[in-house]
Amino acid sequence: MSSDNRTARTARRAALPVLVAGVVVAGLAAPAAASTPDTARPAATVQHVAAAATVRHAAPQAPQAAPARAADTVGQIANGLVDSRLYVTSNAGNALSAADRQQVESALNGLGDADVRAVVVDDGITQQQMGQMLVSVANRVGEGETYVGVTANGRLMAGISKNLDEGEINQIITRTNGQPLKDRIIDFGERAEQRVDENSASAATVGYVMLGLVIALVAAAMSVFLVSRRRRQERQAREMAELKEGVQEDVTLLGEDIARLDLDVMDKKLDPAIRADYERAMNSYDEAKRATDRAARPEEMQDVTRALEDGRFFMLATRARLAGDEVPERRAPCFFNPNHGPSVQDVVWAPPGGTARSVPACGADAHAVLHGAEPDVRMVPYHGGRRPYYNAGPAYAPYAGGYYYGYGGFDLLGGLMVGTMLGSMMSGGFGGYGGDMSGGFGGEGGDVGGGWDFGSGDFGGGGFGDFGGF
Prior knowledge:
Elements: H1 3-33, H2 43-50, H3 74-80, E1 86-88, H4 98-109, E2 116-121, H5 127-141, E3 146-151, E4 157-161, H6 166-175, H7 181-259, H8 272-294, H9 301-323, E5 345-349, E6 357-361, H10 363-370, E7 379-382, E8 385-388, H11 397-403, H12 409-416, H13 421-424, E9 453-455
């Protein structure tokens, strides 16, 4: 890390007590803005991202053989680390006994600011792949300051951190070399905690020196902040209104399709299977209406579209039974328009100027794509006009995620939407260890972002290139 970057990092750490003073002054100005509803995301999240350090990585300790493909996906590892500080992958075998795992988790749970989470992988994984995997997992978990990966034999270790720089991570990893797996993870956590505490104490001293200057600047900054916040709130309110309008269109369409079935569920002659599917369709429709009414944020629209996907399938199942046809296979919804119901086959399609990929499609859209015609894409409200839902901004990500929740959710959508506006925010690694960054932990580096510093214990040069974003 260059001296400039180290200076920048020190300045950022020095800002902690300064920001405390800013909060005090902001509290004095708060009554003036109290009448403005705050629908913005929590400020802590904004500050956390803004404080993310420029990330580099060090070269690996030694070349490694190509890893065997593992069953554990990024999503599985991330889910495991939501409620635990330790995850041992399936291919790592019995690297840690139950007692060892409990001891490691207890040690990691006892840490403070370092906030360490550990992943044990099989011996065939390289430090490059560990680094990419850790970034993908960390971004998916959404919390934690330091992530460390270590092979089952304890020999190779790599880490990423938002509160330790590359050199500090390298130093800690190097000093833990040669220890058994359990002891090495625990020692890494203790050393990381000690280093973070030392950095905080040093930064505090510098911060008090800057306190006077910051107080003078806070008043001006507050006015800028309030204007920015008001504009952000207005933008988010507009996006939410457009999103709710689009979702209500989907709910209304399902209700109309169910009404066309014109069934009398009280008819004793009605086939019990038909009655059951019809009631499920109606219940899903009612749940979608309730979820739409109570939704106040884009994230809550996922509950609506999950109910809509259920309702549309059971509506089609009811229609098929009434006609004496087979109930359609329950596949992922049509990619082009989830209101078309379950897909019937996968077709190769590419957005304008984008790369081709296989997507699920209903019969009509599959026929159109295979014959060179344009599919019937779901167009949603956007900035006073209409555009495809997958290009209508991040507010529509939960909308899409709900439709595909039962078929892989964002893991599936990340591959389907490469090259679209929603796809750009869903990248970050899916699937097993093999493949590139859009399909696994592997690949040849590249900018993976996220504000993470990467270290692997090797202070030397050469290796696998500059990840740029670690």
